[in-house]
Each structure stands twice: as C-alpha cells, then as structure tokens.
Amino acid sequence: MHDSLTPLSGFVLLFNMCVGEVIFGGVGAGLITLLVNAVLTMFIVGLMIGRSPEFLAKKLEPFEMLMAVICVLATPMSVLIFGCIAVVTSTGLSSLNNLGPHGISEILYAFASTSGNNGSAFAGLNAGTVFYTLTTSLSMLVGRLTTIIPVLAIAGSLAKKKFVPVGSATFTTDVPLFVWLLIGVVVLVGGLTYFPVLTLGPILEHFFMGMGKTF
C-alpha cells in the first residue's frame, strides 16, 4: 500500500520513523526515544547555562550521556549500514520492483521500519528473500536492544541518585522554552542524520515527478 504513495507522503512516513517516532510516536518506542532526547536536551542546556545538567531532579553525568548517545546513534547506524549493503549488492537490488530514488526509499523504509517499528515494507520490495530476512532481522535486533538496554541503564542509574533541590538556576521541563529546545534536538539529531539519504530517495523522486519522470 505504501508503495503507491507520492514521494513526499512516503517521506513523511520515513521521517517519522527515522526520528524515533516521537512526533506521532509508536507505542513504547516513541516514548523511549522522546525521553532520551529530553536527556540530551537537558545536557545541552546544562552546557549553555554553565551548571550540571539535571533531569527529574537528578543530576545527569557522563554515564547517562553515554547511554543516551548509544540509544540515539545505534539505530541510525543500523539502518544506514544495512541500507548501504543492500544498495551496493546485486542481492539487495534484485528484490526491487522500482529502480532509482524510489528503490532507495523502498530499502530505507524496510530497515527503518524493522529498527523502530513493526517491520512493514513498501510493496515494491520483495523482503521475503534470504538476504532481507537476515538483514532486517538483525536490524530489528539492533533497534530493539540498543533502545531498551541503554534506557534501562539510565533509569537504574537515576534511581540510585539522590534528589537535587530545585533552585533559582534550575532549568525546569514544564516551560515552553524546553519544548522548543526538545524539538530542535529531535530535528537536528534525527533529521540531519538521515537527511543525505532522504535527499537521494523521496526528495529527489519528488523533483523527478515534477519533471514527468516516474519509477
């Protein structure tokens, strides 16, 4: 069904999954990614105001930041690495029903979906081959474990820490400024990570469609 969407409609699906489903998030996965981005936001705010970052009245230290970075970067690395392997190998390309930028969108969607969602695919991609069965399974494994384990580690670390009293210099999370900063982190970290490949896929296909060329 998704294979029949216009390029920009497919782009919306891809973008939502690529940023961790924090916009209209998937059940569970979207909330986890949003909390990790909130931790990153508070760390950046701490650097900006010159004091130790805090979240939920607990200090954020190097361990929490390391776990947050692993959670944010591991899934994109999985999607992009497996996607690159599929694009440069004849085995990966043989499953495509459409070539050009639409074929890139089909491959990217398959790995983005298995890493962060339920493992659906554009109908133009034959994902039932041995190659895609193995690579999407590994992508799903990486996407699940590198999200769940670091977040549990962050939760365990924060649970052991003492509460930090709220002071005049404390940056709270119930103000509009935090919301805008969080949106900025989501767009910058998630969007820019995938921007090059999204440009070669649905965005390029959109311009080709305007020129009367389809795939």
Give me some keywords for this one.
215 residues, mainly alpha, two-stranded antiparallel ribbon, 7 helices, 68% helix
SSE map:
Blueprint: H1 7-18, H2 29-49, E1 54-55, E2 58-59, H3 62-88, H4 90-93, H5 100-116, H6 130-159, H7 176-210
Antiparallel strand pairs: 1-2
Helix pairs in contact: 1-5, 1-7, 2-3, 2-7, 3-5, 3-6, 5-6, 5-7
Describe the structure.
The protein is an all-alpha fold and 215 residues long. The protein has one domain (7-204). It is built from 7 helices and 2 strands; from the N terminus they run H-H-E-E-H-H-H-H-H. A two-stranded antiparallel ribbon has the order 1-2. A hairpin with a 2-residue loop joins strand 1 (54-55) and strand 2 (58-59). Helix 1 (7-18) runs parallel beside helix 5, helix 3 packs antiparallel against helix 6 (130-159) and helix 5 (100-116) packs antiparallel against helix 7 (176-210). The protein starts with 6 loop residues before the first helix and ends in a 5-residue tail after the last helix. The relative contact order is 0.19. The mean pLDDT is 84.
